[in-house]
Fold each of these.
Amino acid sequence: MNQVIDSILILLTLTGFVLLGSSRLAACIKAVGIQGALLGLLALVVQSGDLSITGVVLALIGATVKGILLPVLLFRAMREADTTREVEPLISFNLSVLAGALELAMSLWIGRHLRLPADPVSSFFVPAAIFTILAGLLVIVSRRKAITQVIGYLMLENGVYVFGTAVALRMPVLVELGILLDVFVGVFVMGIAVFHISRQFDHIDSLRLASLNDRV
Amino acid sequence: MAGLLLSIALFGAGAAGALIFANHGRWTTYAGVGGVVAGCAVGIVPALRAALGGPVESIHAGWAVPYGSFFLRLDALSGFFLLPVFAICPLAAIYGAGYLEAFRPKKSLAPPWFLFNLLAASMAMVIVARNGLLFLAAWEMMALSSLFLVTFEDEKEEVRRAGWIYLVASHAGTAFLFALFILLGRAHGSLDFDRFDASAGTGLLFALALIGFGTKAGFVPLHVWLPQAHPAAPSHVSAVMSAVMINTGIYGLLRVFTLIGPLPAWCGWLLCVVGILSALTGALHALAQRDLKRLLAYSSVENAGIIALGIGVGLIGIASKSPLVACAGFAGGLLHLLNHSLFKSLLFLTAGAVVHGSHTRDLDRLGGLLKRMPVTGVLFAVGAVAVSALPPLNGLIGEFLVYLASLRGIAEFDGGGLTVLVSAFAALAAAGGFAAVAFAKAFGIAFLGHPRSESAEHARDPGWTMLAPATVLAAACALAGSFGARLVAAIAPLIASITGMPDAKSYLSGAANAVAHVAFVGGALAGISLVVMAARSRLLAGRKVRSALTWDCGYYRPAPRMQYTGSSFVQPLTAAFAAVLGTRIRVIEPRGLFPSDASLTTEARDPYQDRLFASLFGAIGRGLSMLRPLQQGLVQLYVLYIAITLIALLLWQFA
């Protein structure tokens, strides 16, 4: 069973790298969707010893929201905002991947030192979670478009979810809160699509929203 | 205790009612005033019983907040401090109903009535709370509700500025209180007052309390917010803030003192020095003001100083095991506090009537109001006599006891205590003199002579809603002055509980006798004056009275502009103390044979604010503006800051 969990976690990490390295917006959305689906699977596998209906339902809802609903919304947002289909990074893709590798190293180091109340099933749980969080932050920080910010935010949230499943067989509230956060991101995405930030501001370049700052 | 809870609930109902009836014209006023009056009427009974030494009652219930508990206790000290709250607030509220009526076409009156109820409730709560968190919550509620009352006329630039200064000052003070309570509760891991201990060192705790509570009480140099905020507020709010709210600062100090037990002698000396500084600074600045309400605010600083002086002398008395000095000092401070509440609210209410009638607070634009507003004028005169500590009114009682205590101490002590007490005695006398001049100026310039402006010309007495509360207060001042000895005897149980000297009553009996003599002589003087006045009017009754110019120094037809102004009246004193006053004088001297323009402007500034705090906050501002480049308005950058912080924390945790 541990092997399945480990492979899921490794896949998760790899999709993180895909997200950091790909220049196509569509690929990024797909990658984040795959991450979502993997998370649902992970939640199922982790509790496979004693499956409960609540657990299964929660895992399925999570997988549906993260793996299907949000990617669909993101695709729609991308179409409706009518922007170029490319990620506009502030740092080069190579540099992003390199930074990602550094983050992975750090996550492994932290994973070795972090003491949890109960030991997780796999020792790769914590590094994968922290890497996903950090990679999400990196995406938010280093990309221009509002839509990539949403993707980064989703990734960050995926990391939190992984962390939750690592410690949280007995903490269902945390997982449910994760789903609430997903709904929030969903609303956020809808905001972009429905209210057409692109039309209001003639662009969806978050850098240019800086003119709203309150500097004197 | 149930009465007290009911009273707080009534305040809550008044606050809610004011909001509910926001769109029903006068009903919001009725709800607001009704809440305050009903709450105070219900609350004053248990407060009085407790203040006179009745049984101590308490409530201890849980509260979901960490370290918090709903712990209330009503003992003699709390009861005593509740009295001004429950006595002044309803009078101020009734007055406010008339005062705010003029604003009704322009502004909604729901917020001020909501906040006024909240202020009354939070002051009562502060005084009975016995848990650190509950206390701080009430303290903060009191600060915020009074802040928004101060900024009622927020369309005026000066009011917004005053509110800002007040906000900063009260939060800075509260920060020290947080430190104080954390240190007090550290040893037992509980913020309930009865589990506090002084393991952190009584000196440090006393210093924290002195700064934190001293800011609210208006001790120099922490007073700078007070002359800004009190005049800016509507007058009934100024009255409550000046006469009642600053008491909570004194209450806090005394409460901390009763919690941490005997203090070293230097604490008493320090409090005396603070008191001396406040009394002198307050009185001198009151002298120099042109703004009537600001003059009153500085006078509050002076009186807070006198109260601090009394308590300081009392602390020295305890530290030197001299029961007479201790009891008379505390009794003097506390009675002065009570009397200050009465006459300061009277003064603010009458000053508000002046503002209401003449639309200006500038003394140099007033004048001749005694003929135009006779009732207000007489009431203001009563307050002015009381605040100048002249018999037979109540201002003298407390000061007299402080005099007695320091005299006694001068006879008993030597060394540092002697020096402090001699200075206290001298400062008290000097401050009293300055205050008398300041109020001679305030009354003389505003009420005597001729009007100095068009608006003062047309001033009239306000309606009964504004006059009745002030009349009640004036009567209370006279009564308290006449029965001073009874007051001294009545607070003996309270003094016994503060000083831990069960025989306080016998120690105070000598002082009570002296006060009775003073009241008798004062009453006799007042009686003789009344007889003379009656005789005069009797003699003049059948005759023709003609009014004419007095000797006019050769100036035929004097114009109102030729009268003494407030600034010229006190010029000899302000010139003598120019170094500490910081009054700005701009003169354009007349030049040539036919001088065309010449002018003289004086502006009373506060040097503590101008020099001390302006440079302090300027330095802080300059330091913080170096962080400006961090703020670029880019989401990416902000997330980066968060990420860096997160990573740094993780690394710091494991490295």
Note: Chain B touches chain A through 16 residues (CB under 8 Å).
Amino acid sequence: MKELNVIFAIAYRDLLKFLRDKQRIVFSLIFPFIFIAALGGSLNANLADDAGYNFLTFVFTGVLAQTLFQSTAAGVISLIEDRENDLSQEIFVSPISRYSIITGKILGESAVALTQIIAIIIVGLIIRVPFEYTKLLYLLPFCLVVCLFGGAFGILILSNLSSQRSANQIFPFIMFPQFFLAGVFNPIKNLPPILWVLSRISPMTYAVDLLRGLYYSGFQEYNKIVLHNYFINLLIIAILTIIFITIGTWLFVKNERNR
Amino acid sequence: MNIIEVSTLTKKYKKSKTVAVDDISFSVREGEFFAFLGPNGAGKTTTISILTTTLAKTSGTILIGGYDVDKNPAEVRSQIGVIFQNPSLDVNLTAEENIRFHTFLYKLYPFTPSYGMMPKEYKENVNELANVLGLKNEIFKPIKTFSGGMKRKLELMRTLIHKPRVLFLDEPTSGLDPLSRKNLWNYLRDIRRKENITIFLTTHYLEEAESADRVCIINQGKIVISDTIRNIKQRLLRDYIYLEPENKDELINELKRLSCNYEEDGNGFKVNITNESVQKLIKEIQTKLLRINVVQPTLEEAYLDLIKEPEEEGKTV
């Protein structure tokens, strides 16, 4: 029970930190705006007729999942940065379990990612993305699942990195290809064999497909867009999350003091 | 009673060929002010990191308040307060939020998102601390605007709120101007008087170590000397007499005949005068002397002599 208090405190601090960082808030608006408006808009104007569905909506749902996944992962990785300066020295020397630190961090960064969704929705409303916003309520619990999945992925990456510098170098290299392999902006229903394999081993693929599957259920575009049934996506996400968290936390706790 | 007990502690970093801390043993009594003095890279921060459970040791045993740092790290952590070399405050939070967060980490109060919902006891505590610091108006403002000295004091206040038995300070005055440094020391002295807290300090400033009950001088991972400042002074600060002769060889022969301990230094010789009076020695020397000086070395000189780089000594061999 007492550890739960600590987890909340750590999570709350992360959210507070984000809400007070105006620069970060602005950036969290700019990227989805560029992706949805510029990329989604141009694809929609040129390819929508051939594809048979609206690209703005397609990119919008993709960016939604990608933001939740990536933001939580990046946030969790910031534990490295914190460890080198900042408050984390103080967190690591306090009498709380290392598992509470990681849990609190994942929860806090999930809250941050969910807040960013508000920015994306505002972007969606401004550029008039055809989207049934009432479906968001139903999507919300699954958004949290995507966040936890991203957080678990972040811990796995984090546990293998030694410094913020290596994190800054490696993180884009791990994330950027997943944008395309997971089909955030591009259709991946048909892929050449090599890309198909790479796409299926990209964790983000399942995050994007889960939210799209849930959103497009009942629409006629469903079969042209969605890869797997939402239950299969949930199952894969659950298995991967458990694997990532177990290995990541174990390595992190082991490496943290053994320098 | 010994609150810190360190025996045969050794630390070798994974990627390093040499050991950072080399088989050191020492103990600190409850309530004592203990200083770890040494140059940069001597192993001070490594030792303090191991004692505060944030770094794993290679070998040796460490007990803090009776608890083993490896077997019961959580118990050890709840008994200690740590001021790190680099400030560890969250600059995005206000001073009060930093303190509040600390109370949650040490499980003093259940989590609440606002100051208003905190218990009365906590509010009284914060008010009192703010008064002592003279930041009544700033306590609810982000600490971005605080000066270095102010931040250090806030860190001290924050760590004292969970009433640690041992306070670890890792070069707490590095980066502070002389006035802030003096203020911080006065504040520390007040705390000691009030709380009877054990203080473990690392520093590379001799004058900071001088106010400690006991000083341990560490160099290249090894303890060079460990004693009270008074005893260290007695052991290290030996008066010597400086003699500058007309003819060097003549004086050397004579010093050898009188079986004196001497050391050549420039044009003259430093001669130890521990057992003999100055007068007696001068009387017996026949060589014509150009200069006679009785010298009392400063502690600074003695300290610098102790931590001399071994390469320098090696060159002459």
Note: Chain A has a mean pLDDT of 88.
